[in-house]
Amino acid sequence: MNYLNLLKVAVKAIASNKFRSFLSMLGIIIGVAAVIIMMAIGQGSKESVRQNISQMGTNLIMVRPGADMRGGVRQDPSAMQTLKQDDYEAIVQNKKYVTYVSPEVSAGGQVIYGANNTTTTIYGESLEYFDIKQWTVEQGDSFSEEDIRKAAKVCVVGKTIIDELMPNVGEPLGKTIRFKAIPFRIIGVLKSKGYNSWGMDQDNVIIAPYTTVMKRILAQTYFSGINCSAITEELTDNAIDELTDILRQRHKIKDGEEDDFTIRSQQEMMDTMSSTMDSITIILVVAAAFSLIVAGIGIMNIMLVSVTERTKEIGLRMSVGARGIDISSQFLIESIMISVTGGVLGILVGWLGTVICANFGLPVSIPMWSIFLSFAVCTVIGILFGFFPAKKAATMDPIEAIRYE
């Protein structure tokens, strides 16, 4: 059996019916392109989400008050007063797997400058918050430990605050804004982060010493949370265990009793979002893959028509000594060539589609394994859906085939 001759015959047969062969490839082209585009969008979206979550902080770990049961009613965690100054100091003194720690309190409301106002959130933090959340002070400087100790009325603001309150003011540093009638002097402006994946404006923020927000705005002695940063992403679980041990010991929680706090990590959020995006991607790819099955059926149909049209040719080949395996190999090679050629064109169309999607602002990233998978799938489709027509051709009676009209 000379495979080179069979390949030449297959090429000649495909070339003699160019339009019909192209229509057979079209289903494969569309199917492969759709799969690649869907996978590229899914992978790109996952990477975009991970990038946005990473902007929330470096190896971020969030400690929040836990809900409590009182009189059979579960209380709102935000109303719990389980995180205090002593907890913060205990974490700072005993941490091994944690680098930065910042207590957090926050309040939403209206901020005013002159005749302008806007709605925002003011966060009370420590100096290490800027390292945890990867904030960079672009103008001026951040507040100091002395400002925290004195509960100074100073703040660092985001770009949106400046744009909304001071559109025609040159230098914002030193200006005084009012939040709930409390004056704050601007000592720094944060570098813009823009909007995140959830459509939230990250620059619409005011950051002040946590003591200032606690005493002058909220009049409370407890924190709404404590933000921490693990030394490395790999040590996040160790850091969570460490924080849990410190807080359980501080709160005198016995073995078997439920924690009065909750700890969530950035990695948890990433894993959850990645799992969700993977599920969506699988659904999209499966939907697109159905077109490949339809394309395979189309190839089988065309190959069956080809077998019928070339019945006399098959009979003549058999009469001069061609074996059944030679005949089946010829039609199988034609089927595989149509499928693989369609796959190659589909990959090119898929790549072009991702370029167009990227130009429209969609996050895309083509995983290389998807291209190799496309080749494998196209080859399998060519073999599976070409097998039945090839077998039909190989089992023909040469005498009946020659007589066929």
Concise synopsis of the structure shown:
56% of the residues lie in helices and 18% in strands. The chain is an alpha+beta fold and 405 residues long. It has 2 domains: 3-52 and 272-403, no CATH class; 81-259, no CATH class.
Please, what is the average pLDDT?
A: 82
Please estimate the helix content. 55-70%
Topology pattern, helix = H, strand = E = HHEEEHEEHEHEHEEEHEHEHHHHH
The backbone outline, from C-alpha atoms, is elongated
Number of helical segments?
Answer: 13
User: Hey, roughly how much beta strand do the residues contain?
Assistant: 15-25%
What would your notes on this structure say?
This protein is α+β, with helices and mostly antiparallel strands. The protein folds into 2 domains: 3-52 and 272-403, no CATH class; 81-259, no CATH class. The chain is 56% helix and 18% strand. It is built from 13 helices and 12 strands. The protein has helices spanning 3-16, 18-55, 85-94, 129-132, 145-150, 159-165, 210-218, 236-250, 266-309, 311-319, 324-359, 368-394, 398-403, and strands at 60-65, 69-70, 73-74, 98-113, 116-125, 137-140, 154-157, 176-179, 182-190, 205-209, 225-230, 261-265. The strands form 2 sheets. It has a 6-stranded mixed beta barrel. Helix 2 runs antiparallel to helix 12 (368-394), helix 3 crosses helix 8 (236-250) and helix 9 (266-309) packs parallel to helix 12. The protein starts with a helix and ends with a helix. Mean pLDDT is 82; it is low at 69-74.
